[in-house]
Amino acid sequence: MITEIITTGSELLLGEIANENAQWLAAFLNEHGYTVAYMTVVGDNPRRMEEAFRHALTRADLVITSGGLGSTLGDITKKAGARAMNLPFVRIEEESRRLKIYYAEKHRPYLPSLDRQAWFAKGARLFFNEAGSASGCAVEKGGKILIHLPGPPFEMKTMMRNHVMPWLTEKLGSQGIIRSLVLSAVHMTEAEIEEKIEDLLRSQSNPTIALLARPGYVAVRVTAKGADEKETMDLIEKTAGEIEKRMPLSRYHLEGDVLNDLHHFLLENHLSVSAAESCTGGLIGKFLTDNPGSSSYFKGSAVTYWNEAKEKVLSVNKDTLRHLTAVSGPVAEEMAEGSRALYGSDIAVSTTGYAGPGKGERGEDPGLVYIGVSGPLGTEVHKEQFFGSRRSVRYGAAEKALCYLLQYGKRMKS
């Protein structure tokens, strides 16, 4: 089923907030077999919003919006949707009574403006909001479905999971599933990869293959749609196997990213990790604590920006720093080993480099980073050259460090 996601709100167009809802909805819908073919962002302008909805309904079977269901004058999504579907916009008395009870239980006065949440397109199917006041809804006409979800991410996700998707499944039946396997090439460019699999790229249908430049590596994403998990994964494995015959690749993640794979790997294998950071300035620690449950494996990260900190906190040799500078393989090695000793972790990772924009102490180009990983298999160091802004270098180094951390852990368990 061809699906379009429309996120509403001028704050998105102004760049005030990230479009988290569109990203989450796309992943969730694809997981359930819905083909997300279009994504639109529209501001709080009645005419433009109605036009966006009308246009979406000409090219998609299912249109899902988020945002603009509240009680202010700027919350116009449902009204624009009713106009786009050429349906009357009516007040639902039962919903008005529910709202009065809801606000009374919250010990808040029921102001006249709050009753705007009780208005819907005629014939709309309402969805209960477990986390807020504004109900969502679905409107059907001419074989098209227009669904309105609330804007706050937690409200939207809860409603989509608990109410909208069960309703869609009951109404439309299973849409199959879509899965993606990402093969990661650490030491190859997109052009080099394309040369090796050009025939597969030209003949692709299901599965599809995409090359994606990531910080520190190139992702080769294989995506398939099937009736069930087995059929879908069989399709993926056939294509992935052919790609792997042609070049060295690592299977970092399925339906996620390197961090999620690392998170599950560390939990399942009861391994602890720590970090020692210079150029990444705490990003590794930030990434490793993004997932709930990270306290089970992450012991800490020492951000040692100055040489004195590297010496005192991580026991990096003073002579090594003086003769080789802080940005060198031996320093990355000693930092990783120092972190492992400091925190008593199973595996430790370190980063030291020049994020830019200026050159290094000995004229090195910005983007030079050494990544160390230390554990029971010994300590290894990887020399990397990143490009782009200071931010790109730092984020690329942090993500690459996680890649090497996962690789090392898998070798420990193989």
UniProtKB/TrEMBL annotation:
<dbReference type="InterPro" id="IPR050101">
    <property type="entry name" value="CinA"/>
</dbReference>
<protein>
    <recommendedName>
        <fullName>Putative competence-damage inducible protein</fullName>
    </recommendedName>
</protein>
<feature type="domain" description="MoaB/Mog">
    <location>
        <begin position="4"/>
        <end position="171"/>
    </location>
</feature>
<comment type="similarity">
    <text>Belongs to the CinA family.</text>
</comment>
<dbReference type="Pfam" id="PF00994">
    <property type="entry name" value="MoCF_biosynth"/>
</dbReference>
<dbReference type="InterPro" id="IPR036425">
    <property type="entry name" value="MoaB/Mog-like_dom_sf"/>
</dbReference>
<dbReference type="InterPro" id="IPR041424">
    <property type="entry name" value="CinA_KH"/>
</dbReference>
<dbReference type="InterPro" id="IPR008135">
    <property type="entry name" value="Competence-induced_CinA"/>
</dbReference>
<dbReference type="InterPro" id="IPR008136">
    <property type="entry name" value="CinA_C"/>
</dbReference>
<dbReference type="Pfam" id="PF02464">
    <property type="entry name" value="CinA"/>
</dbReference>
<dbReference type="Pfam" id="PF18146">
    <property type="entry name" value="CinA_KH"/>
</dbReference>
<dbReference type="InterPro" id="IPR001453">
    <property type="entry name" value="MoaB/Mog_dom"/>
</dbReference>
<dbReference type="InterPro" id="IPR036653">
    <property type="entry name" value="CinA-like_C"/>
</dbReference>
